[in-house]
Amino acid sequence: MRACIRSTGSYLPARVVTNAELSKTVETSDEWIVQRTGIKQRHIAAEGELTSHMATAAARAALENGKLTPADIDAIVVATTTPDDTFPAVAVKVQAALGMTHGFAFDVQAVCSGFVYALTVANGMITSGQVRRVLVIGAEKMSSILDWNDRITCVLFGDGAGAAILEATEEEGRGILTTHLHSDGRHRDLLYTNGGVASTGKAGTIQMQGREVFKHAVEALAQVVDEALAATGYKPSDISLLVPHQANLRIIEGTAKKLDMPMDKVVVTLDRHGNTSAASIPLALHDAVSNGRVKRGYLLLLEAMGGGFTWGSLLVRW
Ligand SMILES: CC(C)(COP(=O)(O)OP(=O)(O)OC[C@H]1O[C@@H](n2cnc3c(N)ncnc32)[C@H](O)[C@@H]1OP(=O)(O)O)[C@@H](O)C(=O)NCCC(=O)NCCS
C-alpha cells in the first residue's frame, strides 16, 4: 500500500507587500532583493488573522478540490513554527474549525522542512495501515517572528498556508515512493529565534547568518536529492517536476542545475510569496496543480532545508 496525494489547496492573506513598500521602512531596494533572492512581493496576514485561520482555509480548499468532507479525514497533521498559541496545537484548532470530533490532530515543527516532515509522518501512518486519509497542512505567520527593522531577514519571509490530502492507494506505481529526512542541531546559531516559551517567554525574532545558511542549504539539498534518486534508481531526467522549498531563487537554480533540469520543470512561487517556511512547498504544489502543470503519472521531487538545521526530500508519482 502507498499514500498518494488526492488533492491540494492553499490560502494567501489578502495584503500584498512589495519590495518597494519595504524599502520605505528599511534600507533596502527592489533591485537588491530581486537580485539576491528572486523575491518581488510577499503576502502578510491581517491583524488578528492567525496561522490556524490560514490553515483552515487551505484545508477547506483541499477538501473541496478532493470532493471530500471532514468526515472523510482520519487525521490532521500541521507543519508550523508559528502556532497561534503555545498550545493547543494548530492542528486541533483546524479540527475544531472543520467540525471534526473524530480522529486525531497534531503539529510537527521542523521549520522550513516542516511540510516534508509532515508528509513523511502521514505517509508512515498510512502505509502502516493505521489511517487511510490524512489532511497535511503547512501554515505559517512568519510576519509574527520578524524584526521589521532588520533588513537582512524582514525582506525574505511571508505568510500563507497550503494543504494536501494524502490517501491510501493500491494503484500500482502511484504515490509516495521514498522520503529522506535529516537534521543536525549543531548549527543552531546560524538560524534561530532569539526567544521562546521556556527561555524568554516571548516568541523572539528570526536571527540569521545568511551566507552560511546559503552554503549549508546548497550542500544539504544536493545530498537529499541524490538520496531520493539512489533509493529509487531514477535518473534526474526521469523527474517531471521539481517542487522545492522557496527560500532563494539562487538556491533553487543551483539544485536545478545539479539535476541538469531546465527551469520550466521547476515550480517557482517565491517571487510572489517570499519564503513562507513550512507553507512554501504546499503553496508551490497547489500553484502547479491548479495551473495544470501536474499530470497523472508525473514524478515529482520535493525538497527542503530549514532551521535546525533540518532537511529532507520526497519523491511522489502523481
Ligand atoms: C540572505 C541572503 C539573500 C543575503 O545575500 P548575500 O549575497 O549572502 O548577502 P550578504 O549577507 O553577504 O550581504 C551583502 C551585503 O548586503 C547587505 N544587505 C543585507 N540585507 C540587505 C537588504 N535587505 N537590502 C540591502 N542590503 C542588504 C549586507 O549588510 C551586506 O552589506 P556589506 O557588504 O556592506 O556588509 C542570502 O545569504 C540568502 O538567501 N541566504 C539563505 C537564507 C535562507 O534561505 N534562509 C532561510 C533558510 S530556510
Determine the CATH superfamily of the largest domain. Thiolase/Chalcone synthase
Q: What is the count of helical runs? A: 10
List the ions, cofactors and other small molecules found in this model: coenzyme A
Radius of gyration, Cα only, in angstroms?
A: 18 Å
Number of domains: 2
What sequence of helices (H) and strands (E) makes up the elements?
Answer: EEHHEHEHEHEHEEEEHEHHHEE
| Average pLDDT taken over every residue | 97
Please give a structural write-up.
With 318 residues, the protein is α/β, with parallel strands linked by helices. It folds into two domains: 168 residues, Peroxisomal Thiolase, Chain A, domain 1; 143 residues, Thiolase/Chalcone synthase (Peroxisomal Thiolase, Chain A, domain 1, 3-Layer(aba) Sandwich), CATH 3.40.47. It is built from ten helices and 13 strands. Helix 3 packs across helix 4 and helix 7 runs parallel beside helix 8. It is globular, with a radius of gyration of 18 Å. It starts with a strand and ends with a strand. The mean pLDDT is 97. Coenzyme A (COA) binds next to helix 2, helix 6, helix 7 and strand 12.
